[in-house]
Amino acid sequence: MSMVFVELKLTNWIPYSGDQNLKFNSAHDVMNMSMIRGQNKGGKSAIIRAIKWVLYGDTGDVSEYQRPLELLNRDAKNNGDFKYSVCFILYNEGKRVEITRTMSVPGGVSIAKDTDFNEELSIKEDKNYIFGDELEGYIKKILPRDISDFFLFDGEMLQQYKGLATSTTAAKKLKIQIEKVIKTPYIKAARDDMNAIKRDLLKAVKDRTDDKQIDLLLTRLEELSIKEEECSNSLERLETDVRTEEEAIKKIESNLRNHEEMIEITKELETVKKRVTHTEHNVQNAKDIMKTQSSNAWTYLASTLIGSRRSDLERKGNELSKFIDENRTNDVLNNLYKESIGHCNLCHGKLTPEQKAHIESKLQEYSTENTSDAEIQLKDIRKLLNKISNTDDLEMLRKQPASYYSNIEQLHEYNIEIENLNKQAKSSEQKDIIDLMQQKVNCENEKKQLDESIERIFNELNGPEGIRKAKKDVDLLYSKLQKDKPIYDRNQSLLELCTKVERTLSETLENLIYQVREEIEEYANEMYSKMTVESSLTSLKINEGFGLDVLDANNEKITTSSAGNQIVAMSLLYGLKKATGLNGPLLIDTPFARVDLEHRQSMLNSYAEMTDQIILLVHSGEINEGGDLEKSIAQNIGARYNIKKESDTNSRLIRI
Amino acid sequence: MKSVLENVLKAESKKNEIDYGIISEIVELNVQYDGSESAEKRRRQSIIKQILENHISNGAET
């Protein structure tokens, strides 16, 4: 693909009233950079919107800049001029192409409504006009919408490239776009076509064969072809449904953004309500503690009154404890003697009658008394002593109400805050938000179920024991049996050719992704090493989702800063373009939104090398007018414009 | 620079002893008519079948 953007002519387009134009510098020149500088909300993004609109009939926005009256300049509208247009001139494969899209209302309308506008598209290639049905197809041929994001994008979108490893909707969309660039969906579709053609041929060839073994194989192949087609169609339908859900979620999110202020209030309300619950819990806790402490304080108070009784109890307890211990020792000795059955417990030698008599007489010297009564008494005394408290719970009880009352006070403040927030929140808007959030949850659940079905059918089709593997095996067996046999009709020749084409496409699919990944990684690393300022041993490694991971010298994954992410993203873009042969201009809106000064310099230097033509839409904070950054790339800038915001409804493009 | 797709398709065509031109033509046809509606699919398949038949009629090696 060889393309150069030449000129953009705007008439009454969003902030640009009247006729205004931008001439980009020509490519294949040292000065291959165009820079358009303007303040935020001044009209930079209107330029990228103009290019998307003239090519595809919409600006790519989800909830704004969709209706004609949103695109018509307000000054023009107030003056009764209801015509706006964008004309885009470019060179494609050496041919000059002029694309013009115009919206206008029929004469005589004094107050235009959205429905009054008529759209007109005209395309001129060199001196020839393109007509009718061929118009949309022509644009699709020169710059398909699916891949336009690789030519026109905003700085914020660069972050999506870094996040390709994740499963966010945006990253998924980008992955689909990358696959379209490397044409895998078309190869898959071509393989499905071959399967469908083959299925009909199998039937015809089977009818003519009299070989039973061949007939069986053809029958099996036919069955597998039908199953493959069914699964493939189901996948297609499910993927369409997923896209529908994703679009719905995107729209809901966009609508939710319109309620940002209310969402903030709702969030704040939720936070305060959570604090109320927490404080109520604290109040209850304080109440429980106070209850326990009251009981303890009473015990302490009672204990101080019975101080003398306590020492009596302690003495009695000690006596009982001593008595029980002594008698327990005697019990142990008696039991030990009984269990020894006439033997010494130490040397295990048999005791003589004299030794036995001696031990028995010694044991009798210790009278063994029953300890059970004493044990009960001791237990009661200990219980009583435990009840007598030594801690001054009365003092703690005096402190606790302070914490209780501070929580009550806090609760009161929170309730006032809730009341104020509820006053700010309009109940109808709150209801809308709750509805939208519920819709979003429903869509997400629906999408989850669809994703699960896709995974199941995909495995059924492509798994190691899947339909395609089975079909390939039967195909090989059939070819083997058929070899050396004469080809007796045309359908058989066609079947053989179909099988070869199908196999070639399948094997291309298997190898293509792998090779593309390898090439992207190689080119991305080339650009990455140029863009990184610090001498670094880090490198990039491509992952399954076409995302790039940054690895350190030990091949360990590391995280990067915002500037680092931007560099990784640009490296990936460069790798993609180089590996897929997507040569052409690069237009970036707000290219350095999250990049520090040092990296801006290295990135700017690399941009000039990245592509034949580069167009930067910057705000003055990114590249200061006349600053060092601008001076350093002055030799590359062929066209320079300032956007002068004259009023809220009018901006002017000034070439400098 | 030739795209990776072109290189891989050429290599696989050679391996399967099939003319690269026919494969490339079939893929391009899918790029051009990429509709998923049954009618468009049938139209595309019919064109592809014709390409295959012409290929055999011309006596080209499969």
Structure overview:
- Chain A has helices spanning 44-56, 68-71, 74-78, 134-142, 145-148, 158-162, 169-181, 184-208, 212-257, 260-305, 307-339, 353-365, 372-387, 393-424, 427-462, 467-482, 490-531, 562-580, 597-610, 628-632; strands spanning 3-13, 16-23, 33-37, 84-92, 95-104, 118-125, 128-130, 152-154, 539-542, 548-551, 557-558, 586-589, 614-618, 637-647, 650-655.
- With 656 residues, chain A is of the alpha/beta class.
- In chain B, helix 2 (20-32) packs antiparallel against helix 3.
- The model of chain B has no long low-confidence stretch (mean pLDDT 84).
- Classes of the chains: A alpha/beta (656), B mainly alpha (62).
- The interface between A and B is large, with 37 and 35 residues.
Question: Which SSEs are present, and which pair or pack?
Answer:
The complex is a heterodimer of chains A (656) and B (62).
Chain A (H helix, E strand, L loop, with lengths): L2 E11 L2 E8 L9 E5 L6 H13 L11 H4 L2 H5 L5 E9 L2 E10 L13 E8 L2 E3 L3 H9 L2 H4 L3 E3 L3 H5 L6 H13 L2 H25 L3 H46 L2 H46 L1 H33 L13 H13 L6 H16 L5 H32 L2 H36 L4 H16 L7 H42 L7 E4 L5 E4 L5 E2 L3 H19 L5 E4 L7 H14 L3 E5 L9 H5 L4 E11 L2 E6 L1
Parallel strand pairs in A: 3-13, 3-14, 8-12, 12-13
Antiparallel strand pairs in A: 1-2, 1-4, 4-5, 5-6, 6-7, 9-10, 10-11, 14-15
Helix pairs in contact in A: 8-9, 8-17, 9-15, 9-16, 10-14, 11-13, 17-18
Chain B lengths: L3 H12 L4 H13 L5 H20 L5
Question: What is the string of helix and strand elements of chain B?
Answer: HHH
Shape of chain A: extended
Shape of chain B: flat
Overall mean pLDDT score of chain B?
A: 84
Classify the beta-strand content of chain A into a percent band.
Answer: 5-15%
Overall residue-averaged pLDDT value of chain A: 84
Strand adjacency order, main sheet of chain A: 2-1-4-5-6-7
Structural class of chain B: mainly alpha
Low-confidence residue ranges of chain B: none
Strands of chain A, total number: 15
The level of helicity of chain B is over 70%
Profile the largest sheet of chain A.
Answer: 6 strands, antiparallel
